[in-house]
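sorry for the late reply, my laptop died twice this morning and i had to redo everyting from scratch. anyway the thing you sent over, i finally got around to it. pasting the sequence first so we're on the same page, its 137 residues, then the predicted structure underneath. double check i copied it right bc i was rushing
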Amino acid sequence: MKYPRSPKDQVGGLVYLGRMLDKIRLMAAGELHPELHANLGKGFDERIMTFLGVDYDAIRTRTLHGGTDEEVLEWCCQKGKRPNAEQIEIWNAFMVKRGWNDDLSETLIRRKKESSFENRDDIQTMFAYIDADEGRA
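ok and here's the structure:
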């Protein structure tokens, strides 16, 4: 079973989108790590879809149709919204800080405890937690 790429990795300048596309492809191939199945299309997936103005089932279908990450992003921009440079900057800044002094802080604390990371002071955000939990940090 496999994990998708880091949520910090960018596609078209956007953080997280590539991770969601990986999850879609890995799930279809029967290779997605089971702990990620329950949240497909939810949480951060839902956030990026709302940001781009597309539906999860539609982006899933388009992704599985084939093509590069950039081609899927272009499809999203045509079907939904095309963010400008400032909107992308705000999106990225918002997402990379999720879990740090916001409504996800308690979730981050709980997940760190569940994963025996309570002493990892370097894990201050959900993105950092995901990377640590999946063995990248």
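The longest strand covers residues 10-11.
thats about all i looked at so far, will dig more tmrw
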